[in-house]
Amino acid sequence: MARKALSIIEVFLAVLVFMVGVGAVVISFMGSQALIEKSKELTIVSSHAQYILEEIKESAISGEDFIEGIRNGNWSWGCATIVARGLECLTGENITTSVEDENEGIINVTVKWNWKGNHTIERIFKTKIFQ
Fold first, then answer.
1. Cα 30 from chain centre
2. Residue 69 is inside which H or E element, if any?
3. pLDDT, tens digit (0-9, with 9 covering 90-100), for 28-50
4. Domain assignment of residue 2, yes or no
5. What's the total number of domains in the chain?
6. CA 125, 126, 128 angle in degrees (round to 5)?
């Protein structure tokens, strides 16, 4: 006698295999979306640090004491200052500058922000500027 239909077990297994495949694709998609979002934020943070470093560099070229300016907090910004400069502020973003080595002219720009509301990320950008 020839079989003309699939058994319920075969149908169930086919649906199960299909669902595992769809689930893997959805999980992969969600993971890639999170990476894209974090990458976008890292790009924004890098541009903010670059903006501040360019301002410090310009002050050094014009003869200002940029070391003293850093110590006075001239380039330590919260969201209000970031937005006032025409930049997009990330959630909870805070930028601080510090002098690592005055003799070598090494300065740090530290950017902290909240990622997805509950995870604080910190990136430190280091450069050397001479007076």
1. 18
2. helix 66-71
3. 998 899 899 889 999 999 999 99
4. no
5. 1
6. 145
